Automatic annotation (TrEMBL):
Transmembrane intervals: 12-33, 45-65, 77-98, 137-159, 187-206, 244-263, 275-294, 336-355, 405-423, 430-452, 458-483
Keyword Cell division (UniProt): no
Native organism: Aminithiophilus ramosus
Superkingdom of origin organism: Bacteria
Membrane topology: Multi-pass membrane protein
Keywords: Cell membrane, Ion transport, Membrane, Transmembrane, Transmembrane helix, Transport
Biological process per Gene Ontology, one example term: metal ion transport
GO cellular component: plasma membrane
Pfam families: TrkH (PF02386)
GO MF annotation list: monoatomic cation transmembrane transporter activity
Record's protein name: TrkH family potassium uptake protein
Annotated localization: Cell membrane
InterPro entries, alphabetized: Cat_transpt
The family this protein is said to belong to: Belongs to the TrkH potassium transport family.
Length: 491
């Protein structure tokens, strides 16, 4: 029976090889925080916390690549890419947790939670950031920056491998700015790098230190939301800092294709984009509702009320997770509004999470098409179309069904996560808020996530962050493929 399974398992050698290559490249991230010792020599005690796991990951990755490297260039299918992405994200998260556990003095469960939160650009944290080593804070920000670009697409294209399509598709990034995946990815990284540099300069101009500027710029453009302060952006309580953060959050929220069109001056194509229209309508409506029913009643100064309403709603919608206030004083309407925004999420093929604005827009349009179709005379044919850049594209029933299935899975995961947290004696509203935040990779919290959170709570939210970042399909396809090839075939 073993020879019959050999052809089935041969693709996994290619998966192992390319996964090893990515992990080897990922290991170089571990050597960046120790470079900060030039500025903070007093933290040299933590250097080995990064160097040892970095070297270990490098050896593992290089060993896999050298052992299973294909003799001729090979392209990964979507199924192979799903397995590779699941493998890379899992292994990278485990290795990245070692510095968290050592420098952050966290338990293994807390360290893995913090690592997954960073890689998935969520921003939920159990670290006491006010007393944590600067190397650890920088490490979290670097992980968010890398995770925001997409670990696979970030590293595979740089390596020049011909397997980028399967991996980037598996991560849900199917829009290409240019025909070749490697050139497309380099352009994405150029935009991403430009965002980060602009952010650093902006925060410096707003009065932040270089260290705070770097960390918050990385967190903003990756829509990650980690902060070097316990009260996040609210620690400064400056309109200038918020004014820098908002454009960065919006840029991180944008589909990279949309950003590319903006750079090229194709504003008409951008204006016709359904995501952009939904973003404008949702942001404006949420801001107005938050101001009228929440902030103006809590903050007597008009400018403060307007700033809070604008910043908090945009932070939730873009899934960044920065905050300027505590939600303890917010009424149920305000917290529920944030939950809805976190579920909607950001742009497709961006650093943001959530259901994604393109899917929500399509669901609204499909409802319109159903009503319009019901009003047509017998025999009339309705062809659903949507703007795709500067052209109209027909929307198939299969596409609508695919989005409907995804939305169902998202709501199901949200319900299961909420019930699991509620079973930990967490109030239902708080459980729903935290699950929506983790599943949407947002990072806003009403206080459930802390150093005192139970292991069950952290495991539940870790799974939610992982599923939300890889968008269900990757995880399900990878697990189904592994089950078929290694379990059912053995019976």
């Amino acid at each position: 029976m073993a020879p019959s399974r050999l052809p089935v398992r041969r693709p996994y050698l290619i998966v192992a090889a390319y996964s090893g290559r990515i992990l080897w490249l990922t290991s170089f991230l571990f050597f960046l925080p120790p470079l900060a010792l030039l500025f903070y020599p007093e933290e040299r005690i933590w250097a080995l916390s990064f160097l040892v796991p970095g070297l270990s990951l490098g050896v593992v990755g290089w060993g896999l690549w050298r052992s299973f490297r294909p003799k001729s260039p090979a392209t990964l299918s979507f199924q192979d890419g799903a397995v590779a992405v699941l493998l890379v994200w899992s292994v990278a998260s485990v290795f990245a947790a070692f510095p968290m556990a050592s420098a952050g003095r966290l338990t293994p469960v807390q360290a893995l939670f913090e690592s997954v939160s960073a890689w998935t650009t969520t921003g939920l944290s159990v670290v006491d950031v006010e007393n944590a080593p600067r190397l650890l804070l920088l490490w979290r920000s670097l992980l968010q920056l890398a995770g925001g670009a997409g670990l696979a697409i970030f590293l595979v294209a740089l390596a020049g491998s011909p397997n980028g399509t399967g991996l980037s598709s598996a991560e849900g990034r199917t829009d290409q700015l240019v025909p070749h995946i490697r050139s497309s990815t380099k352009l994405v990284l150029s935009l991403y790098g430009a965002y980060a540099l602009i952010g650093i300069a902006g925060y410096l101009a707003a009065g932040l230190s270089l260290f705070d500027s770097v960390n918050h710029a990385f967190a903003a453009v990756s829509t990650g939301g980690f902060s070097t302060r316990g009260s996040s952006i609210g620690a400064w309580d400056r309109a200038a800092v918020e004014a820098v953060s908002i454009p960065l959050m919006l840029l991180g929220n944008l589909n990279f294709l949309t950003a590319f069109l903006l750079v090229r001056g194709r504003f008409r194509a951008v204006a016709r984009n359904g995501e952009i229209r939904l973003l404008v309508v949702a942001a404006a409506s949420a801001f107005l509702l938050a101001f009228l029913f929440v902030s103006r009643n809590l903050y007597p100064q008009m400018d403060k009320a307007l700033r809070v309403a604008l910043f908090e709603t945009l932070s939730a919608l873009t899934t960044t997770g920065f905050s300027t206030v505590s939600y303890g004083d917010w009424n149920g309407f305000g917290r529920s509004l944030l939950i809805v925004l976190m579920i909607i999420g950001g742009g497709t093929c961006s650093t943001a999470g959530g259901v994604k604005q393109a899917r929500v827009h399509l669901l609204f349009r499909s409802l319109f098409w159903e009503i319009r179709g019901a009003l047509l005379p017998p025999g009339a044919l309705l062809v659903p179309v949507m703007a795709d850049g500067e052209r109209e594209t027909a929307v198939t029933g299969g596409k609508i069904r695919e989005v409907g299935v995804y939305f169902f899975l998202y709501v199901l995961a949200l319900a299961v996560g909420t019930l699991l947290l509620a079973g930990q004696d967490i109030p239902l509203e708080a459980a729903l808020f935290e699950t929506a935040s983790a599943l949407g990779t947002v990072g806003l919290s009403v206080g459930v996530v802390s150093a005192t959170a139970t292991s069950t709570t952290l495991w539940t939210l870790t799974a939610a962050m992982f599923l939300g970042r890889l968008e269900f399909l990757v995880v399900f396809v990878a697990l189904a493929r592994l089950w078929r090839d290694f379990v059912s075939n053995d019976r």
